[in-house]
Prior knowledge:
mainly alpha
Amino acid sequence: MSHRLYVVVAVLLLTVSASVRSQEPTPQPASDETAARQNKAFELLDSVAGQFGALRSPENRARIGSNVAELLWSHDQTRARGIFVAVEEDINAGLNYSDTDEQSHRHTILVFGQLRGNIIERIAKHDPELALEFLRATRLPEDEQRPYEMEDEKSLELRLAGMIATRNPQLALKLGLQSLAKGFSEDLLPVLAQLQRTDKAAALNFFRTIVDKLKDANLTDDYLAMGLTTSLAQEFAPPRADEQSYRELIGVLWKTAVTNGCTGSSDDVPPICYQIALLYPRIEKYYGPRAASLKRWTPNGQNPEEAASISRWGEVREALEKGTVDEIMALAPNYPEFQISIYSTAYNKARESGDLARARKIAGDFPDEAQRPYLIAQLDKTQALKTVTPELLADLQQRLNSLRSNAERVQLLLYAAVQIAGGDRKASLGLLNQADQLLGSSRPGKAQVEAQISLAMVYCSLKSDRGFAIMEALMPKLNELVAAAASLDGFDNDYLRDGEWTMTGAGGVGSILTQLAQSAGYFANLDLERSITLAAQFERPELRLMAKSKIAQALLSTPPNQPPVSQVIH
């Protein structure tokens, strides 16, 4: 979207409100309807499960097979386990693939390594022990691993340990201790944090073992040990850790500070002194006046507590960006210095998702009492803006006329249609019809196809058959694009492996197919049989199977609300 259009959308957002949509909870399907959807999903999965083994590409067999196995787990666990075991062979086939071209060989290893990690995470949701077996059964021999691959393997083990800690703390502890025996890593921290939530005795054991190993480390030369020590000291102060073990941890830092002259009178000290100085308040608690000289190494005269706070910000930033409302709010007790950011992010996510009740609860508890009336007023305004007025639509038409290109007008129309859909379906359909007419005269290309898919998706979300009409007309074009891209395989992108289309989303055509896969729920929710018919129109069998598995996935999920703006604007 151009900068000019962003400005227009921002103005419209202020006028219309960011979430003019139905704020009522999504009605749950009746139990018989839910059962019918599930039965159809399992029929589709049975069909895909009986066909994907005939594909030539181990990558596609592993990718589609793992999708099917995860979706089948609750319905037929025995069959799902059998598919995951078969997928092991396909992953090993990819990891042991040999090619005289070193670059191609390493790329294949990278693709299958990423796919392997994804499958392990899928399995771990259901059976941590099976995930561990899969990890060990598909591991490259250490003498064939490059140093960075060995680190990636260690990180993968620890990610798995963190995931399974909620279900099997003792297994997570075992994995953590095994990884620790191979070396230090800050990836140990999420495992420790999860153990603290599920098994405090296991967490205490793990913390003490880490500290004991750090006592024998040379923090000056081992940056991984130094990073782990400082992170532990910042994040796991009592009561998250027991007093004695934490005191010993601070002792490791103090010993390193003394060894490097950080506590002396010299004005020339190594960089590690500045790193240790960030933890001065923690060190002072145990070493009192002896630690006073550390204060002067705080960077730029910054208050040590402020410096430590900046360091801790990195711990919460990713969760704020990617976490759910519940995950974000769970941060609040452990990061009091970031209360405003945590509550603000959670409030905005709840409001934008249409969960006004949750947003209102967060607003009522907002740390800054002066902001509470403003936030609640925002929610009241959003709730009130359910009726689309003629004045609002007239203002939108004026803004459309001010834009220079059809592409910008189409994107604004899609954006506005999604925003007002819950308040006035008829007006929303009118905007989509405008966008449809503009697209008919737009320049052919990737942007037009993406906009057509977005338009079809929004039509379907409004229960309009026009969405299927658009896609039925577009399918021959998609097959032509896939065939053309396959002919250019290896020139602009690697679209094929073993003669079959890869599902990595690479290149322009790959991104279009990914967009279509993400929209499957909107089509399946409107007309299942028509969706299946559309999927069957893909000429390549691997694309047909993937499309059917995505439809099954949509059927087993909660029917979607209105599409988020990120799905309709590219």
